[in-house]
Amino acid sequence: MSNNDRGSWSSRFGFVVAAAGSAIGLGNIWKFPYITYENDGGAFVLVYLLCIVAIGIPIMTAEMLIGRKTQKNAVGAFKELGGNKWKIVGGLGVVTGFVLLSYYSVIAGWTLEYFFKSVSGSFNGLSEQEVGNQFGTFVTNPFKQVFWHGLFMSLTVFVIMGGVAKGIERVTKILMPVLLGIFVILLIQSLQTGGAGKALTFLFRPNFSELTFDSVLEAVGHSFFTLSLGMGTIITYGSYMRKGDSLPKSALIVSGLDTCIAMVACMVIYPIIFSFDLVPTKSAGILFTTLPVIFVKMPGGTFFAPLFFALVAFAALTSTISLLEVVVSYFVDEFKWERKKATAGTGFLIFMLGILSALSNGAHQGLSNLNIIGKTSTVGFFNTFDYLVSNWMLPIGGLLIAVFVGWILQSSVKEEEFHDGEQTFFKYNHWNFLLRFVSPVAVAIIIIAVIFGREFQ
Ligand code: PFF
Taking the domain 3-451, which CATH number applies? Predict the structure, then answer.
């Protein structure tokens, strides 16, 4: 199959929308608001923003560069630039995508159940306790867990079968503006609840005495997860980019959008919670246990609740398709499989693997433990997979990508690619410095910290 058959984005906008779709997902809407809540806001948010700038944007640019330079999947790209030794980094990415998608799709499936629950008004009149119980019953119902996970995987497979421009790009171009529109409506609504001032103070007033080493580690790890870095997703999407599209500008726009959405998600969720004086008992459950209660009490809640869960489902879908594309492009490029066959085959296997997470009772406990860097998971496949992916695979992948592009790849290749396309204030020298000295060192510190000690706390 020649490169031309791989497909490409129809424009730079196509790439930016798809990459932003990948980045913006459960990580922004579900995870960021609750880890920020757990880590006491302000100072944590500041560290997170620093991580996006110093680690996330440089590595995202590096991934785009590898992809666009080679026009290949993650494994093929590393093979071309670094030989067989470095191919392993791409391979690690494909495996990570496989595992990550298998459990991500389980939670994504929950958003569908909650969408239908809120449409049918099944939260009406329930107390917080009852909504919590309902959630507990739901996550331990094997039929429902497998059903929604299967449905979400089917949707993902359906989009990926359509290919790059006609599948991924077309769907994300529709879903992303819808998502932004829904967010704006919810934001306006939420700012009127009277809790906006408290929410802003919580988010933006740093209190460094509350900042722990753990919070810093969590912020570093989350910057990988939220920007879809460390497993070749942006390499893969970058491989469908055209020459002449600016790498630094695209990286800045995608990371900027992702960060804004994470902040807006907090500004949608916190004012509602603060104005109703509800302190979420389990902060990880905000999305599925606290919000439904609030929506029921809120004027217009029966309208806003389904809107909200639809939004989360859309955001999750544009992320799951990027995860599946990493795996599919590998089989299409390297083994010359037909796209539809590769998609159906790998999608089915990922669905099967995901059943383990869907059925593990750990999924319930996983909700409170799901943590990008850190907490050891002891129960269930769901926790174990997330632990492996978030604590090990993404950071190690990110570190290796930074080392490869920072130290191994020829400067002439880097400079040429970086300068191809519009330039911004984010110059080659800034990027190269961050990629060589800041990103790998910061990531190495997390990995060492995870190895020594955090698990024993
Ligand atoms: N960035 C996505 C989120 O924040 O939900 C998750 C994700 C997607 C991680 C794709 C990694 C990836 F390759």
Answer: 1.20.1740.10
